[in-house]
Design goal:
Blueprint lengths: L13 H22 L5 H6 L6 H10 L4 H14 L5 H4 L3 H17 L5 H9 L1 H34 L3 H49 L2 H13 L10 H4 L4 H23 L1 H8 L4 H17 L1 H14 L1 H7 L11 H9 L4 H37 L5 H26 L5 H25 L5 H23 L9 H24 L36 H19 L1
Membrane topology: Multi-pass membrane protein
Family: Belongs to the sodium:solute symporter (SSF) (TC 2.A.21) family.
Pfam families: SSF
Length: 558
């Protein structure tokens, strides 16, 4: 596609362009101001571990509000309906609570600078190198998804060729991330969170009015797509499994356990925000604070997708199995074109730009940290002055952005980019989660099992994907990703156990602070005095409240 289809061109006016211009100025200004606080590599990569919990909590969620969330989940909403809620209520909140309650004390307490660095301390260089390389590859691939979605918005708005839109969008993100490092990314993510909500809320409200409210929406979805799209369970269309039991099992185990825990607890893009917090208490509260807005985000992302699925004749044709000039990735653009007046349209466009920039900046800031600390410093240039690694980090930011420009065009081959994203998660996150769970709770696990299990699990997920892509297994929807994730987890665990039984473990004295049973409780306990005092800051209370609320939402919409 060279130019945006005229049917999708947004009728933006001077007010809309002015709002977009103001936003870009603010983004670059934040990057410039953040640069003044960057004097060491720790400042650049982890904000000097100085940020308050409310900032890191909002950044934690905003970093995830990229193309994956906005374009992918609205596309899922249009295609599958209410079962998409599983990505939030089953596929996010429980894992975020587990991260805050159980895993953050290990990450923050050990003062590791990245997730791969934990594996190096636990297993040595074999597992560390495998994870660092796979993580770096995953980040530039996912950054490419965010960049492609950002370019699509510019393409639709201005009519620029996609490749020009990709380069311009990358240049803006590169500018503020290179200037201010993680601090610039985090503070921009806080701004972007509010901009995104301000953009999506009016779209949801106007859309509901247009279809006759909630009742009107449910009536039309039931009539045109079937009542199965109005209940979250069993989600057979989403998983591709004909059996309700297998579908439920796939959602609970494949998505809710393996993919979800693999993403939220081991993905350094998210963990990096918590690790930049000012204390262990703040680090533990980061994902727990983020869980509350996270569980309500689908009401302004998935619901607009469902609205577009019944309001747009082209998308309705697509859902019915017919040919259409649009894809599900066009869902939000269709709604914005048809429903929003000038002024509000500018806010919506700015919100989309903010979302994609937040997602891409999160991927690039995580990439530059892992590249610098876990690859360059560990394997190529050791024992150099701190300023040298700060310079390498900025160069890695440029390199990651350039690679992301290339990977952006891979995403162009998918009509629903969520299919592509879930495939990547099954490759990279699912086996990593299996390794982490064993590593933290089984002191006997050996260094050889660490890297061999990771490689085997990844190979299992890729095998499932190839079998599904070639038609050997008929798994429509996102069932192949769920099955691949489950296979990766099981294979990783089995291989790790077998290899452990045949190889020698590390001495227990080297595992203190890295394994649950060998770490004194005091080292896993956060401070409750000073700025960490107050019953309302209790991680157990925050986590328990989030689980109760999400259980209620599952009952209401299940």
């Amino acid at each position: 596609m060279i130019l945006a289809q005229e049917t999708l061109r947004l009728n933006a006016g001077p007010v809309d362009y002015a709002l977009i211009a103001v936003y870009f100025v603010l983004v670059l200004l934040i990057g410039y101001l953040a640069r003044r606080s960057v004097s060491t590599s720790l400042d650049f990569f982890l904000s000097g571990r100085s940020l308050p919990a409310w900032v890191t909590g909002l950044a934690f969620i905003s970093a995830n509000l990229g193309a994956i969330e906005i374009i992918g989940m609205s596309a899922n909403g249009a295609q599958y309906g209410m079962p998409t809620m599983h990505y939030y209520w089953i596929g996010a909140i429980p894992a975020m609570v587990f991260l805050g309650i159980v895993m953050m004390p290990f990450y923050y307490g050990s003062k590791v600078r990245s997730v791969p660095e934990y594996l190096r301390r636990r297993f040595g260089k074999g597992a560390h190198l495998v994870n660092a390389l796979s993580f770096a590859a995953a980040q530039v691939l996912i950054a490419g998804v965010n960049l492609f979605a950002l370019a699509l918005v510019i393409n639709v708005l201005l009519g620029w060729p996609i490749w020009v839109s990709v380069v311009v969008a990358a240049a803006v993100v590169l500018s503020y991330t290179t200037l201010g490092g993680l601090s610039a990314a985090v503070y921009n993510e806080v701004l972007q969170f509010f901009v995104i909500v301000a953009a999506l809320l009016p779209l949801t409200i106007v859309g509901l009015i247009q279809v006759g409210g909630w009742q009107g929406l449910t009536d039309r979805v039931a009539a045109e797509a079937g009542r199965q799209q109005l209940a979250a369970w069993p989600g057979t269309e989403l998983t591709g499994f004909g059996s309700s039991f297998l579908s439920t099992l796939g959602i609970v185990f494949g998505l809710g356990f393996v993919l979800s825990f693999g993403y939220w607890t081991t993905n350094f893009v998210e963990v990096q925000r918590a690790m930049s917090a000012s204390s262990m208490s703040a680090a533990r509260r980061t994902p727990l604070i983020g869980a509350y807005p996270k569980m309500f985000i689908p009401f302004v992302v998935v619901i607009p997708g469902m609205i577009a699925g019944v309001l747009s004749p082209q998308l309705a044709t697509l859902k019915a199995g017919g040919e259409s000039e649009l894809t599900y990735n066009d869902t939000l653009s269709v709604l914005m074109r048809d429903l929003l007046p000038n002024g509000i349209l500018g806010v919506a466009i700015t919100g989309l730009l903010a979302a994609f920039m937040a997602g891409m900046a999160a991927n690039i800031s995580a990439f530059n940290t892992v590249f610098t600390y876990d690859l360059w410093q560990t394997y190529i240039r050791r024992d150099r002055p701190d300023g040298y690694y700060l310079k390498i980090g900025r160069r890695a930011t440029v390199m990651g952005t350039i690679i992301a420009i290339g990977t952006a065009f891979i995403a162009a081959g998918y009509s629903n980019i969520m299919d592509y994203i879930q495939q990547l998660f099954s490759f990279f996150n699912a086996p990593l989660f299996a390794t982490f769970i064993l590593a933290m709770f089984w002191k006997r696990m050996t260094p050889a099992a660490g890297w061999i299990g990771l490689v085997s699990g990844t190979a299992a997920a890729i095998t499932v994907s190839v079998l599904a892509e070639t038609g050997v297994w008929d798994l429509p929807g996102q069932g192949a990703s769920f099955l691949g994730a489950g296979a990766a987890f099981v294979v990783d665990v089995v291989v790790s156990v077998v290899v452990t039984m045949l190889t020698r473990p590390k001495p227990e004295t080297e595992l203190v602070g890295l394994v649950w049973s060998l770490t004194p409780k005091a080292d896993r306990t956060h401070s409750t005095t000073g700025r960490d005092a107050g019953w309302y800051r209790s991680p157990a209370l925050l986590g328990g409240g989030a689980l109760v609320l999400v259980a209620i939402l599952n009952v209401i919409f299940g």
